[in-house]
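WARN retry 2 of 3 for item q-0093 after timeout on previous attempt; input resubmitted unchanged.
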Amino acid sequence: MRARPVRVRVRATLAAVTVAAVLVVGGCLGGRGGGDPWAGARPESLTFATGGPTGIYHGYGLGLADVLTERYDLPVEVLETGGSIGNLQLLADGTAQVAFSAADAVGDAVAGDGSFEEPLEVRALARVYDDFVHLVVPAHSDIETFEDLRGRDVSVGAPGSGTSLIASRLIAAADIDQREVRTQALGLERSIEAMRGGDIDAFFWSGGLRTPGITDLADEVSVRLVPLDDLVDGVRADHGSGYRHGVVPAGMYGLTRDVPTLAVPNFLVVRADMPPPVAHTLVSTLFDARSRIASAVPSASQLDPVRAIFTEPAALHPGALRFYRETKP
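OK item q-0093 returned
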C-alpha cells in the first residue's frame, strides 16, 4: 500500500511577486520571445512529486515551484513523498503532473519491470543532476566494507524510493542474502533519527551532494561512508549503464578522504500526454531559474543543456526537445 504523500502548497508572497516582476523586466527570468508561452495550454495548476523534506528532490521542487508561481501566478503543489518509484506511480495515476526520479526507477517504469505491472508512458524534461549512493555509518563503527553488513541493523530506504531499489541491487551484487541483514525500511529523516538514537548500524541514501539531512547529522555526530566501488561493475552488468562510478569528495560531511561509490542520474519527468507548450515552458523556466534555485539547492548548478538531453531510457518530451533545439549553440 502506497504511503499518502504530504502536500505543500506554494504561493507567492507580494514581495516575492514584486521581485519576480523586476527579474522579468530585467531579463533574468524572461521568456524567449513574446506572446503566450503556454500557447493556450496553460494548466490551472500543477502538482510536483518530489521526496522527503530533507532531501534534494524536495528542495529542488520547491525552488522551481516558487518561480512558476511568481512568474505565471500558477498554483503549484509540492508533494513530500518516499521517492522515485512512488513519484512515478503518482505520475501514472494523475495525482502529479511532474516528478523527480532516478534513472534506474524510470527504466523499470518504461519497461514495466520491478514495481511496475505494465509500462508507463513517461517522458523526460531534463537530466537534472546525479545521485551518489551513501552507505552511512558512525565514524567509530567497525563496518569497513559492504560485507560487514551481515548481521547488522540497516535502513535500506523508504518503500517506493530509489534508495530502496539501489540498496536491494547492491545487496544482490554483493551476493548477500537479504535475510542476512536486519533491514528496516526507513526514509532519510527516520534513518537519521535512528542513527542518532543508536537504533541502526548503517543506512543507505541515494542523493545529490550535499544532502542537507546528512550534513546536519554530520554536524552533530561524526559519520563516514563505506566505499562501494567494488560493486559498481556488477550492478552495471545486471541493470544497465545508467549506473556509473562516482566519488563523494573529501570534506563532504567531514570526510577525511574521497569515498568511491555508485552514481545514477536523476530526471525531471512528465506523462507523455502533457501538451508540448507546457513541457516547453517548464524546461525554459527550469533553465532560466537555474542560478536562483542553486542558491538554495547546490545540486541545481549541475543542470547543463548539453548533458540534460541524455535521459535514456526515457525519451525526451517533444516540448523539451523543441527547447533544446531552439537553444542549441
